[in-house]
Design a protein that fits this description.
The chain has helices at about 15-25, 45-55, 70-80, 95-100, 100-120, 155-175, 210-215, 245-260, 275-290, 310-320, 325-340; strands at about 5-10, 30-35, 60-65, 80-85, 125-130, 180-185, 185-190, 225, 240, 240-245, 265-270, 275, 295, 305. The protein is globular, with a radius of gyration of 19 Å. The protein has one domain: Rossmann fold (3-Layer(aba) Sandwich). Strand 2 (about 30-35), helix 2 and strand 3 (about 60-65) form a beta-alpha-beta unit. The longest helix has 21 residues, at about 100-120. Helices cover about 40% and strands about 20% of the residues. Helix 1 runs parallel beside helix 2, helix 7 packs parallel to helix 9 (about 275-290) and helix 9 (about 275-290) crosses helix 11. It has about 350 residues and is α/β, with parallel strands linked by helices. It binds uridine-5'-diphosphate-4-deoxy-4-fluoro-alpha-D-galactose. Uridine-5'-diphosphate-4-deoxy-4-fluoro-alpha-D-galactose binds next to helix 7 and strand 8.
Length: about 350
């Protein structure tokens, strides 16, 4: 019998790519999602999961479930015996989090606490958590290693990631037989090579590459570049973009680490290379063969000039390293965007 992994928020962009890799690695993912960001497909399944099924050729166990629904969560843990939990569920829009902090803290923090309680009650002691490089705040030095001070970010979304890290660390301290891997993602982009699953933001994309892809496909007129007066190669913001499939494979490596009874571990998932906004625009023009119109506008509040990882620890301790380069990321993003100009919805 293959080992069952609970995947919260498994219908989302990163979650669905991890579900696919879990199946490929021989695990049985059990996906829960509350459809906050996911589009419904046929047979009560999210469209993203329906397509993962199509790619892997096996059925994926799915249940519509909100982590704040304690009773249903308990039932789920009674029904399945999980080896580990991969926790992706949560609200993730930085700007929105500033407008509605309570909502963000309720969903992200309370949702996680309910999940940890259910794990404790049912003796599931292994968790991989979807954290973010945002916990580092404004970098004091670059590249960012895992020892860089944390807690410096200023928006409720980023703080919720930091608080959850602390909660999980404390649980691991109190429960010595628990294992946790906290993965600090840099900027995931791209899509599975099939072009069948990818990022599908609802409304106006907050993040650079989904926006760029929508300009390339003709869904939006022009990219706003948030500032060109940073102290960077061309004045625009520099980030560490990582292929979402590399990121997903990092989660499988984390799962293997949990099996070593590793206690609480923290790893950056990045490539170690920074790219500017204008370099990304160029790379996407090359991949798509389309012109991407842009204009320079004011800086976005809360943005840092540069942010990129030192990814060595993950390489040393997880045996994981990003394999895909920028061209591949853009080509895969373009395949997804051009074959699904309106994302998972049909119109
Ligand atoms: N940018 C633009 N125009 C846009 C969107 C973004 O110029 O329309 C620029 C930003 O100013 C920044 C770069 O593109 O320089 C990347 O911006 P993203 O919004 O794509 O990514 P961020 O690095 O700001 O944020 C991401 C995640 C957050 C996470 C953070 C961690 O979206 O969830 O990384 O570092 F917290």
């Amino acid at each position: 019998m293959s080992e069952k992994i609970l995947v919260t928020g498994g219908a989302g962009y990163i979650g669905s790519h991890c579900v696919l890799e879990l199946v490929e690695a021989g695990y049985t993912p059990v996906v829960i999602d509350n459809f906050h960001n996911a589009i419904r497909g046929g047979k009560a399944l999210p469209e993203s999961i329906r397509r993962v099924q199509e790619i892997v050729g096996t059925e994926i166990l799915f249940q519509e479930l909100d982590l704040l629904d304690e009773a249903s969560l308990q039932e789920l843990f009674k029904k399945h015996r999980f080896l580990a939990v991969m926790h992706f569920a949560g609200l993730k829009a930085v700007g929105e989090s500033v407008q509605m902090p309570l909502q963000y803290y309720k969903v992200n923090l309370t949702g996680t606490i309910r999940l940890l309680e259910a794990m404790k009650a049912h003796e599931v002691k292994n968790i991989v958590f979807s954290s973010s490089a945002t916990v580092y705040g404004d970098p004091a030095y670059l590249p960012l290693d895992e020892n860089h001070p944390v807690g410096g970010c200023t928006n409720p979304y980023g703080k919720s990631k930091y608080f959850i890290e602390e909660i999980i660390r404390d649980v691991c301290k109190a429960e010595p037989d628990w294992n946790a891997v906290l993965l600090r993602y840099f900027n995931p982009i791209g899509a599975h090579k099939s072009g069948r699953i990818g990022e599908d933001p609802q409304g106006i994309p907050n993040n650079l590459m989904p926006y760029v892809a929508q300009v390339a496909v003709g869904r939006r007129e022009c990219l706003n570049v948030f500032g060109n007066d940073y102290n960077t190669v061309d004045g625009t913001g520099v980030r560490d973009y990582i292929h979402v499939v590399d990121l997903a494979k990092g989660h499988i490596a984390a799962l293997e680490k949990l099996k070593e009874n590793c206690g609480c571990k923290i790893y950056n998932l990045g490539t170690g290379t920074g790219c500017s906004v204008l370099q990304m625009v160029k790379a996407m023009e090359k991949a798509s063969g389309k012109e991407i119109k842009y204009k320079i506008v004011a800086r976005r509040e809360g943005d840092v000039a540069s942010c990129y990882a030192n990814p060595r620890l993950a390489e040393q301790e997880l045996g994981w390293k990003a394999a895909f380069g920028l061209d591949q990321m853009c080509e895969d993003l373009w395949r997804w965007q051009s074959q699904n100009p309106t994302g998972f919805s049909k119109n």
